[in-house]
Structure formats: C-alpha cells, structure tokens
Specification:
- By secondary structure, the chain is mainly alpha-helical.
- Helices cover about 45% and strands about 5% of the residues.
- It contains eight helices and four strands.
- It has helices at about 20-25, 55-60, 65-80, 105-120, 125-135, 140-145, 155-175, 180-184; strands at about 35, 45, 150, 155.
- The strands form two sheets. A two-stranded antiparallel ribbon has the order 1-2.
- α3 (about 65-80) packs across α7, α5 (about 125-135) crosses α7 and α6 (about 140-145) packs across α7 (about 155-175).
- It starts with about 20 loop residues before the first helix and ends with a helix.
- The relative contact order is 0.12.
C-alpha cells in the first residue's frame, strides 16, 4: 500500500538580528552603528540610529552640500581621534607596556578636531557645543537642546538647529569647502 506523500514545508529562515529587518529598511535607511555602553552591564554595544541628522537636514534643504560634507569630515575625524569616551579592552597588548599609547593617526585627528572646535569658538560656544554633541557624539538636536542650557534653561529646538547650521557653515569654510568670499 502506498501512503500519502508528505508535502515539504518551508523552513523558517532566521533573520540576522544584528541588521535591521526587511520591513524596517523599507521605511528609511540607517546610519553607521553608534558605539555606546550598556547601562546595566557597562559593556560596549553598537546602536543603529534610524535618523541621520545631517542627511535629513540636507534632504530638507536646511544645509548646503558643502555643510553636509564638512559635518561628515568632522564626524570622521572625531571617530579617528577616539573622542567618544568608550574604552574597550585591547586584545593585543605589548608586553611590559604600562600605558596605552595613541597612534599618529589619532594624534593628528585630535589636533584637527581641536583646530575645528577653535574655529567654532571653543567647546563652550553655541556652535562648538552643537557640532561636538550633534555631529561628533551623534546626539539628536532635540536631545542636545534639552541637555544644553544657558542660564539654567534648555535651548529651544529651532534655535538649537540654527546653532548647528551656523557651526556647519563655519566648518565648511574652515575645511576649505566654501570660499571665504561666498561664506561672508
């Protein structure tokens, strides 16, 4: 007696949990992973942000392509300088070394970041603070405006956005992307 043939059932494919799902990707792109520390354990983790502040500002016409490029240059220098304050254990250590040393690339990147921040008026200036936190540390404008305050009051979000636009304009001139005659 011949029995009934069993139909093959499709095996469920497991999604890679390290990447956004197909459903999420159809609603917009993601930026590069942002490194952070897990608040419970303190271990380094990577968060993917669905909102890229500079990309959105460029798409809405708030900033020029030169300002966007200046922000990308600053962000790259900031990452190269390792100023995000996330410390991890190095897997390869030199025997007998007592302190971790910085590479020449990190030192150069830190000097370039310091010159850019000086061009913006320093860390405590509105433009310098906005670029440091929003572009360098990749905070949202809303998060930075609520955190940053003068005279004990938070900065209104539209004003915070204006501070960032001004800072990006200065950075574009500092990095030589906008001629001085046009920037003035």
């Amino acid at each position: 007696m011949a029995g009934k043939r069993k139909t093959k059932t499709a095996k469920a494919q497991h999604d890679d949990l390290a990447k956004p799902s197909k459903w999420r990707l159809q609603h917009g792109g993601f930026s590069e992973p942002v490194r952070g520390a897990d608040p419970d354990r303190g271990t380094p983790v990577a968060h993917r942000r669905a909102v890229d502040t500079l990309g959105q500002m460029l798409a809405h016409g708030t900033i020029t392509p030169q300002m966007h490029e200046a922000g990308c240059i600053f962000r790259t220098l900031f990452r190269s300088a390792a100023l995000d304050s996330i410390a991890t254990t190095q897997f390869v250590r030199v025997g007998g070394a007592t302190a971790d040393t910085m590479s020449v690339r990190q030192i150069d990147a830190r000097r370039r970041v310091a010159r850019a921040i000086d061009a913006l008026g320093g860390h405590s200036s509105p433009a310098g603070s906005a670029v440091w936190f929003v572009v360098g540390l990749e905070m949202s404008i809303r998060e930075w405006s609520a955190r940053q305050g003068w005279s004990g009051r938070p900065v209104p979000q539209p004003i915070a956005g204006g501070m960032l636009v001004a800072g990006l304009g200065i950075l574009a001139m500092h990095f030589g992307l906008t001629p001085r005659e046009r920037a003035a």
